[in-house]
Every structure is written in C-alpha cells, then in structure tokens.
Amino acid sequence: MNEPDWSAWKPTERAVLCFVIEDGRMLLIRKKLGLGAGKINGPGGRIEPGETPLAAALRETEEEVGLTPTGVSQAGELLFQFKDGYALHCSVFKAAGAMGELRETDEALPFWVALSAIPYQEMWADDERWLPWLLSARPFRGLFCFDGDLMVSGRVEPWDRA
Q1: What is the DSSP string of the chain?
Q2: Is residue 49 packed enough to be buried (19+ CB in 10 Å), middle (13-18) or exposed (0-12)?
Q3: What are phi and psi of 117, to 5 degrees?
Q4: Which of 41, 22, 36, 38 is nearest to 115 (CA)?
C-alpha cells in the first residue's frame, strides 16, 4: 500500500476524539460498536452535517459517557487512509475536566486510567505515536495508513493550526 499524497488527500468522512484529562488521569472508553469495536480509545465519533468539530466532540462525549467536557481545546488532527479506500480526518480535542455522571452506554464502556498506565497494547497502533504529543501539549498532525487493523505506515509532525 503506497502512502497517499497527503497535500492532495481528501477525507471521505470527518470525526472527532475528546480526551478528558484531570488529576493525573485520562478518561478512556472500550468501544462496543463501529470502527475499532473492542479497542480502547477516547470518546468520539462522526461530525454531523452543519456541526463544528468542537460541537461534535462535546456531543459525542455526552452521548457515549454522560459527561460534558470543560476547558476544551483542539490538540491536533489525524489523517487516516485505509487500504479499502476509507479516508478519515479526525480532529482531536483535550479537555481539562468534565461535569456530569459517568455512565456506560450501548456504544462505550468508560473508565479512568492513570496517565502512567495508558493501555496502548489495547488501542489503535497509531495512538502510541501521537498521544504523548497531546499529553505534552505539543500541537500535532498524524498521518497514518492502515490495512484493516494493521498500521502500514505513519508519522507525527508538528501541527500548524493555520
């Protein structure tokens, strides 16, 4: 699988991830449905027509785990090209806290984990490359190619928010 020309690349879908980090812990979910079912990730999902990425991050987190993120800012972006042609652009957000009652839903089993114990072995292979950038507040752009669940290539670079 050849890496795409990222400068001309266009996504077939747009999505968001939102990582709530407070008191030395990160909120993660075990996905029950859809792309990455069974894997651990942050809350998130597809951006609906007319919705901003920030609004989608708030909505998806509320829907999946019952919490409303606070102190939210965009930390980076991820571009995924899959061998089957699926192309996903993901805006990644970081939240300083959250309000509400944490709950399990049909989509996700949420849990808190110490930042020193992030279960990378149960996550997508790319997460280990860019999550340290998010945790150190370094704006990032990740470019990854997958064949199903197998990461074929990938890199992380500084993200120019312009």
Answers
A1: -PPP-TTT---SEEEEEEEEEETTEEEEEEE-SSTTTTSEE-SEEEPPTT--HHHHHHHHHHHHHSEEEEEEEEEEEEEEEETTS-EEEEEEEEEEEEEE-----SSEEEEEEEGGG--GGGB-TTHHHHHHHHHTT--EEEEEEEETTEEEEEEEEE----
A2: exposed
A3: -130, 30
A4: 22
Which pTM does this prediction carry? 0.96
CA distance 143 to 153: 8
Radius of gyration of the chain (CA): 15
Q: Rounded CA gap, 106 and 109, in Å?
A: 8
* Average pLDDT by stretches of 10, the chain with 162 residues: 90 97 97 91 96 98 97 98 96 97 96 97 97 97 96 95 66
